[in-house]
Amino acid sequence: MQENQLRFRQIHMDYHTTQHIAGVGAEFDPDEFADTLAKAAVDSVTVFGRCHHGWLYYDSKKFRDRIHPNLAYKHLLRDQIRACHKRNIRAPIYLTIQWDHLLSRQHPEWITLNPQGQQNGTPPYEAGFYNHLCVNSPYRQFLEEHVAEVFDLLPVDGLFLDIVQAVDCSCQNCRNLMAAAGVNAANDTERQAFALKTINDWKREMTAHIRKFSKDCTIFYNAGHVGPRDRQIADAYTHWELESLPGGGWGYLHFPATQRYARNLGLDSMGMTGKFHTSWGDFHSFKNPAALQFECFMMLALAGKCSIGDQLPPDGKICKHTYDLIGSVYREVAAKESWCSQAEPVVDIGVLTPEEFNADGGLPPAVFGATRMLQEGGHQFDFIDSKSPLGKYKVVILPDTIPVAPALAAKLEKFVAGGGKLIASFKSGLNEAGDAFALKCLGVDFVGDAPFSPDFIMPAGEIGRDLPKTEHVMYTRGLQVKLRKGAEALASTRVPYFNRTWEHFCSHRHTPSAHKRGGPGIIQKGNCIYFMHPIFTEYADVTPRWCKQLLLNALDILLPQPLIRHDGPSTVVATLNRQKTEKRLALHLLHYIPQRRGQHFDTIEDVIPLHDLTLSIKAPKKLKSVRCVPDGAELAFTQHDGRINFTLPKLEGHQIIELAL
Ligand SMILES: [Zn+2]
């Protein structure tokens, strides 16, 4: 079970405040501050020790020249914490790490350098405090003393250490250390590996340092994302905070994809959105209430806690209207959270994340394609990596670009031999060289790239259910494969008259089908189904419904009894969590529709109710009751063939349904 259970209703209270504004904190009133939070049902707030401008908001003894020069309220941080503690509100402290504008100006030699020898981050004549400082510089010593002083002067519930990233640095300190460690600094891969080791070593050292002062304060190092890279350093953290503001560039798929991975790393986790319309520092903006509801309730549905970002204005007067908005959501969270505490996700499917194998560390589109397709299909799934145990999954999916090294091949072959089901697509299952299938269970041999693209899949039989039996374009080039013994083509491709080139082309886009058979398109061998096209990336790109339908049909073949079935639209999100001690399941249903209303901006304004939603849940034994919670309305249900069936009269936004075991 997860340790360090976080609170459910948290605020991340930014306070990056320049010295070019006077009267900093002049309007701060500790009781008004904490009463406003308490009234909005907030139970934890992260408050500011040191900001990206480089200023301190407490009465430092050691670093008096770093105290904000216009700080009108001398003990701002201390009194924020005291007022919160009086109302049983936790108050962890925020400290910036790699971005500090003041120190970057005072010690330009501490700024990380890119391989061209230039400073990383904001150029001199642009606004912004984004120069990354190097922890291999004497800055490391400053951080140690700074943290020690914070413990000396203030009560510390936890530390949120911000901007802690592996930065590819070629400063003189890093080059000396690389030389001493025998690292070839001129080699990009070796240098980047050194950068990752640098930051991980620093985190472990800092956690050990913090533990000298507190055995149990929470510790989190923020890099704006949590992924497979963080597994190796989880011991330095007490929990995960998944910074993911849908309007701030993360989008609406980043949180569900990331949380479905992070929640399996053995630590408690929270989502972090913002009250801002767009992103951090968007003063005087307000998120649409429906969007804030969706974002917070999604965190609960995915077994996480909630955090909402805000920024206190320079004068320190908390915005009542912001907390009217936040309170409207957090009071609902408060009513729901007893069905969310110690919640463990119940899932059928483990999706190996292509992120683990992506050299640049970003999230490949196949992650978002898989998230969308499975969520829209009502499936219950985690993202996993090559180190995750597979025992709890009925189906493992390898989307598009999962190279399979010998150890992973052995693990997956064993899983399939033991009755596990496997779906792979495109290059997933190939060896690391990419020239042969390492996964023999897929039943295919590698020939090369598909000779035609786009080509066309011809739906047939069970895999083609609900699709017209005619060519469907597959936009992205697949692989040419041959069937091995015992494998069967569930669907084959048709090829165009020719590939579109300047010498021969037809009409505006791709060449139509010549109605000639190509190769096998979807192949089954026993427990495994293989798609030769990159269906997950393609769905992330242009969302052809037939790609999703083919995947859902493959799942119907391999997983005839999924945990949840419903007859709602594809915009319903359904998740299932178990509370062991309460002996119950909590089914979360959400219906909010993010819309592209700005050219590059998705939002939600309206909650569109659904009526008479029919649900069928795979239930292990006789259920005692089915109730809508927290209001408690009982729902009539029938139970047969290992499933319980009932109708929800109305779904308006978010509904938890308690299944008492
Ligand atoms: Zn460096």
From TrEMBL:
* SUPFAM superfamilies for the chain: (Trans)glycosidases (SSF51445), Class I glutamine amidotransferase-like (SSF52317)
MF terms per GO, please?
beta-galactosidase activity
Q: Which InterPro entries does UniProt cross-reference here?
A: Beta_galactosidase_Trimer, Class_I_gatase-like, GH, GHL6
An example of a Pfam family matching this protein is Glyco_hydro_42M
What residue stretches are annotated with the Beta-galactosidase trimerisation domain?
A: 374-438
A GO biological-process term: carbohydrate metabolic process
Name the residues that span the membrane: none
Quote the protein name from its UniProt record: Beta-galactosidase trimerisation domain-containing protein
